[in-house]
């Protein structure tokens, strides 16, 4: 081989190596995925869907777990301390989160996934001026939590304030959750912004399609048959969005227990309303619904997913959870007397 041929071969080798390094350099720059900690399993799935391979997500309250009854452990504070980002629901769902964040000394960004949604009042609390309560529960970089009433009562109980925190039960709100997560990831990791944008766009598109389908299917059920009875009051947004009427024995907190008088009134209401079905929840004690079944003779229509995903199966994702709930409700309600 001539000197000229050798020199040419060497040059090609150097150029090829340079191109390989250039192609790999973004991967080296962002080889480690972002460590994201979410408060509960539904947010876990949302972050994983929007973040893709660029995130490693840890959920404080796992599948089938009850966010209302959660009691943080020392390891949870360590998870927060090591995180690049924290994602919470807000709306005072996580009554324990501020104390846990303070204990961890975390100083990064905190995303309140519900920011920007139109909240619904709970237990007769009227939103007289139509305010958007989502921003009222934001966490900033200084961790100024003094404006949040997250004080816990005895045995892990906490107050939800005057708004219903279960906003993800309306798919239009789920779309806003995805946008908030997307924006936070883009801010923290702009090099992968295109991926976050694309993932969020596809995800929101699926929510829009399922939302339209759910409304069309639910509209086929006669209004007189659209009463649902669930363990606790987690389906208010769902009921508002899809034209249902909701009754529950224990209100919004799964740790609460109805009085004998409350149960008596509820039984009378169920009997007079000719409800077709009662519904269990995957993370709630079935005793109350079973008692109502025995007292009223109303059939148990199935299990709904309220505050938690399942470890596997159709309820292991947010969209799968929602599809399951719609299918289960329609099958139970759309039957001949």
Which terms would index this structure?
337 residues, Rossmann fold, 10 helices, alpha/beta, 8 strands, 4-stranded parallel sheet, single chain
Give the topology, please.
Blueprint: H1 3-29, E1 34-40, H2 41-51, E2 55-61, H3 74-81, E3 85-88, H4 97-104, E4 109-112, H5 171-188, H6 193-218, E5 227-230, H7 236-242, E6 245-247, H8 260-273, E7 277-281, H9 287-296, E8 299-304, H10 318-333
Parallel strand pairs: 1-2, 1-3, 3-4, 5-6, 5-7, 7-8
Helix pairs in contact: 2-5, 3-4, 5-6, 6-10
Q: Could you walk me through the main structural features you see in this protein, from its secondary elements to its overall organization?
A:
With 337 residues, this protein is an alpha/beta fold. The chain folds into two domains: 34-209, Rossmann fold (3-Layer(aba) Sandwich); 220-333, 3-Layer(aba) Sandwich (Rossmann fold), CATH 3.40.50. The protein contains ten helices and eight strands. A four-stranded parallel beta sheet has the order 2-1-3-4, sandwiched between helices. Helix 2 (41-51) packs across helix 5, helix 5 packs antiparallel against helix 6 (193-218) and helix 6 packs parallel to helix 10.
